[in-house]
């Protein structure tokens, strides 16, 4: 449902498995643990919202593993019009091996999980986007590789990194910040006044790993957030489902566009990198940054495939046992 459901070691293993599968498959070798792992199995994908990356990466991952992805768009099935979530979850799960669901309210995916007899993976709800977070930490790991000491302990070596989030407090931020707590990276968040992280979510983030040294800082100043940042991240200011608020939000977020000038004014680290889960709009980041040498956004988008492979392996093939995958 969320990165909050994972221990730090499990999250690290999912990211490491994603990395090793990426290397193997891209060099022309399908690891034994993936080959035919979903042969004869179907993964149902009820999506109540649009998607490019999540759909393409999930369908691609199922195909790599020899299974059949079954995309079920909002217009295609009875769900929401003619049939309840409960009945839909019971029925679909009786004929498939996994449900990967994209929903509006988080309760919807939680309800599906409650009534499903097979694993349900959250493909984005209004609160969380865990597959994105696995891809994001893979991207961060590739951009800031672990030193030798960290590699020996199987850690990703992210302790001491600073991630600055500039923009809206949303689903992508929440799972990223929860993951950062678990992996020891600090997160500093700049939102306009009135758009701060809600207090219930602040408690979830801060409680994600009680012994973590990682900090969660919050401000209304983008420049303050990016001070000493290694990575600057943003996302759309208008998430799916918030279309009616678009005009007001775009006005209220004036001054929050990520630019090289803003990063320099704020004092981001010399080698800072830019991330965005996509889709992207001009207002939240200008072209100089988005298409510039600091941007790892398309690598991040590609990493969605390896995150999906890693998650399907752990939750469907290995039935929730998250262990280091064999080659
Ligand atoms: N980042 C992401 O989830 O993109 P889609 O909405 O295109 O799936
Ligand atoms: N926060 C965005 C992410 C899209 C991938 C949304 O929920 O629409």
UniProtKB/TrEMBL annotation:
<protein>
    <recommendedName>
        <fullName>Ornithine carbamoyltransferase, mitochondrial</fullName>
        <ecNumber>2.1.3.3</ecNumber>
    </recommendedName>
</protein>
<comment type="pathway">
    <text>Amino-acid biosynthesis; L-arginine biosynthesis; L-arginine from L-ornithine and carbamoyl phosphate: step 1/3.</text>
</comment>
<feature type="domain" description="Aspartate/ornithine carbamoyltransferase carbamoyl-P binding">
    <location>
        <begin position="2"/>
        <end position="142"/>
    </location>
</feature>
<keyword id="KW-0055">Arginine biosynthesis</keyword>
<keyword id="KW-0808">Transferase</keyword>
<dbReference type="Pfam" id="PF00185">
    <property type="entry name" value="OTCace"/>
</dbReference>
<dbReference type="GO" id="GO:0016597">
    <property type="term" value="F:amino acid binding"/>
</dbReference>
<dbReference type="InterPro" id="IPR006130">
    <property type="entry name" value="Asp/Orn_carbamoylTrfase"/>
</dbReference>
<dbReference type="GO" id="GO:0042450">
    <property type="term" value="P:L-arginine biosynthetic process via ornithine"/>
</dbReference>
<dbReference type="InterPro" id="IPR006132">
    <property type="entry name" value="Asp/Orn_carbamoyltranf_P-bd"/>
</dbReference>
<dbReference type="InterPro" id="IPR006131">
    <property type="entry name" value="Asp_carbamoyltransf_Asp/Orn-bd"/>
</dbReference>
<keyword id="KW-0028">Amino-acid biosynthesis</keyword>
<comment type="subunit">
    <text>Homotrimer.</text>
</comment>
<dbReference type="Pfam" id="PF02729">
    <property type="entry name" value="OTCace_N"/>
</dbReference>
<comment type="similarity">
    <text>Belongs to the aspartate/ornithine carbamoyltransferase superfamily. OTCase family.</text>
</comment>
<dbReference type="InterPro" id="IPR002292">
    <property type="entry name" value="Orn/put_carbamltrans"/>
</dbReference>
<dbReference type="GO" id="GO:0004585">
    <property type="term" value="F:ornithine carbamoyltransferase activity"/>
</dbReference>
<feature type="domain" description="Aspartate/ornithine carbamoyltransferase Asp/Orn-binding">
    <location>
        <begin position="159"/>
        <end position="312"/>
    </location>
</feature>
<dbReference type="InterPro" id="IPR036901">
    <property type="entry name" value="Asp/Orn_carbamoylTrfase_sf"/>
</dbReference>
<dbReference type="GO" id="GO:0005739">
    <property type="term" value="C:mitochondrion"/>
</dbReference>
<dbReference type="GO" id="GO:0019240">
    <property type="term" value="P:citrulline biosynthetic process"/>
</dbReference>
